[in-house]
Amino acid sequence: QVDVAAMARLFGYVDVTDSGFIAAVFSIAFNPFFWNVVARWEHKTRALSRGFGSPHTACYCLGTVILLLNCVRSHCFTEAMKSQPKLEGLDSHGAYYSGLAIMAVGTLFVISSFLALGFTGTFLGDYFGILMEAKVTCFPFSILDNPMYWGSTAVYLGWSLMHASPAGLLLTAVVAISYTIAVLYEG
Q1: Nearest to 84 by CA among 160, 139, 155
Q2: Quick one: three-class SS letters along the chain?
Q3: pLDDT digits over 136-166, tens only?
Q4: Using one digit for the tens of pLDDT, what is the confidence trace for 1-45?
Q5: What are the φ and ψ backbone dihedral angles of 147, each rounded to 5 degrees?
Q6: Nearest Cα to Cα of residue 133 among 120, 151, 150
Q7: How far apart are CA 160 and CA 100, in angstroms?
Q8: pTM of the predicted structure, to 2 decimals
Q9: 38 burial level (CB within 10 Å; 0-12, 13-18, 19+)
Q10: pLDDT (tens digit, 9 = 90+) per residue, 51-83?
Q11: How far apart are CA 156 and CA 150, in angstroms?
Q12: What is the dihedral of CA 91, 152, 113, 65, to 10 degrees?
């Protein structure tokens, strides 16, 4: 069962009508929507590959756009956290170092996923017809499905704990929900 009182206390610290919070929610939800729509459009039409002259160039350009959108998302997330109050119970050395450890594990998953997949494997190369020779099964894929998504979620969770931010915790839940929907859509 969900502790409704705990949720009510959390929402008491978060102004969901704040423009920075709304911008963060929008950027979190927009990113996976954008890359899935563009990738499927490319797969059906090959319009980007034709427009850029090759599937590799098109994939690298889309990957760059995705990276820039992720920077915008992270900026919006951080600004939303900074503009809202801290949770006193989380404003401690223990919570800070726990957040740092969670963030480190998340970063490990994100970086090791990227190294295992390469740029085109990470940034939707299969939709451009750039296929890998075999399914990647090495670490971190050997212990977790979608390690880049869950690593990224862990980074945001750790960042939120380090800043004792209830707004960050709520935004992390939005990240997790967005990635869960993306996984369902992509699968």
Answers
A1: 160
A2: CCCHHHHHHHHHCCCCCCHHHHHHHHHHHHHHHHHHHHHHHHHHHCHHHHHHCCHHHHHHHHHHHHHHHHHHHHHHHHHHHHCCCCCHHHCCHHHHHHHHHHHHHHHHHHHHHHHHHHHHHHCCHHHHCCCCCCCCCCCCCCCCCCHHHHHHHHHHHHHHHHCCCHHHHHHHHHHHHHHHHHHHHHC
A3: 999 999 999 999 999 999 999 999 999 999 9
A4: 666 776 666 667 899 999 999 999 999 999 999 999 999 999 999
A5: -65, -25
A6: 120
A7: 10
A8: 0.91
A9: middle
A10: 999 999 999 999 999 999 999 999 999 999 999
A11: 10
A12: -130
Q: Which two tokens stand for residue 53?
A: 């002259």
- In the block, tokens 């950027």 appear at 27
How many residues can be counted in the chain?
A: 187
Question: What is the radius of gyration, based on Cα positions, of the chain?
Answer: 18
Lookup result for tokens 């919006």: 76
Whose CA is closest to 54, among 46, 45, 44, 63? 46
